[in-house]
Structure formats: structure tokens, C-alpha cells
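Action item from last week, closing it out:
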Amino acid sequence: MHPNYFAVFREFARNSLVREMTFRGNFLLDCVSSLSWVFMQLGLYLVIFEHTDQLGSGTGWGRWPFFVFLATTLFVNSLVQFFFMTNMEELSDLIRTGNLDFALLKPIDTQFLLSLRKFEWSSLANVVFAAILLAVSLGHLEFRPTPLQGVLYVVFILCGVALLYSLMIALGSVSVWLGRNESLYDFWFYITNFSRYPMEIYEGPFGTPLRLAFTFAVPILLVANVPARLLAWPFESQDWRLAGYAFVASLVALVASRKLFYKALAAYRSASS
């Protein structure tokens, strides 16, 4: 009998919420800590825009378009943190200690189980802040996005989440061969920092190779750039091409990371072996 994945997903979410509410003081502290970091980021950019009209000469990322970009980055990162971050951080320990055996015995897809066992509800504070920032920013734009742009924005937010999740599950899978991979998770945080800025600022002898590498080799620059561009500016032909590439890249990344995950499981030696 196949499990009802929606019911399992709902139960994971409920159990995680109950666990968070058991220690409400800690939950509130996590919310405040997370929002404090967001406010510091916003404060930094407010100071920057006191001294310049655009983030990068001729890029088009003025104050309010860039705040659309910032809100988009917060949406994607907060959703990744909400659904996957805690689970991916624990994956290496499950492999190292042999506790992955218990997940393999469950009559449910292993990747689904390991990816969504725990939800980090405190990260939704950032989602609320991002929604407010996005609404304020859209109100100050020189044009109004169309309903189609709004729909595509949501679609490519999900594509950005898929790209980051694929990278996380791929790095987690490598734990089977390495035993411990804390340095690889550090690598994930280092390279995802590039996705926090518009791709137009990566120009010149150093910037251009970075833009090409993180657009085509490891496409993390697509994570926030594509949805933000679709909402902050009128449609242009290059935006459609980039959006099409981002959609294909997210599908390829999901398939490739899943294949790597199950290849890693095939190489896994249980605690009893």
C-alpha cells in the first residue's frame, strides 16, 4: 500500500510546529534573531542608496527594483530554510552514525522522508517580512507588474527553491563517501552568497567569469535574479530566454540530484553491515 504523501507531509508539519511551541521562548528568540539579521541587511542597503542611485553603474537596479530583488532573495532562502535546512544538516550525521538504516526501513520514498522530516517554523518570520518589503517596493515602482508577471514570479521562486535544494541534497549525498562533510556545507554557504546580488554587477576580468560560472556551471545566480527581473522590470526578450533556461536548469538539477542521492544510497553501508 502506497503512503499518502500529502498526509505524511501534513503530519511532519504539525509535529514540527508542536515541537517548536513546546519551547516558545526559544521559538520567539529564533524569530527575533532571524529578523535582526534581515534588518541589518536592509539597513546596509538603505545606507548604500543614500550615496548612489543604482547598485552598479548602468545596471538598472535602483532603490526600489533592488528591494524587490532583496525581498525575492529572502523568500527563496526562507523557504529553503523552512523546508530543508535542518534536515540536510542532519543528513551527514545520519549517515555517519548509521541511523540512516531506520529511514531506509520506512515504507516511503527515502528522499522525501529525509528532506521533509522537520520544518523550521521560525523562518516564516522572514517570509512575512519579505512580503511586506515586496509590497512596499512594488508600490514605489514606476510601472505596475501584470498578473502574468505575478504568476511567473511565484513559479520562478519555486524554481529558485528547487535549485538550492538540489545543491543541498547533492552535497548531503556526498557524505556517504566522505563520512563527514561539514566543509561541503560551508562551501554551500560560500557559493550561495553570490546569489544574493544582481548578476549585472559581475562584470570585468573577475566578475564576468564568475557570472558565467554561476549561471551555467552552478546556476545559483538564477535563483533570485530571474523572478526579481520578471517582477521589477517590464518584459524583455533576454528575460524570457533567461527564464526559460532557469526553468530547464531547475528540472535538470532536481533529476540529477535525485540520481546522485540514490547512487549514494546504493553505496551506503549500514550500521549492521
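Closing note: The longest helix spans residues 63-97.
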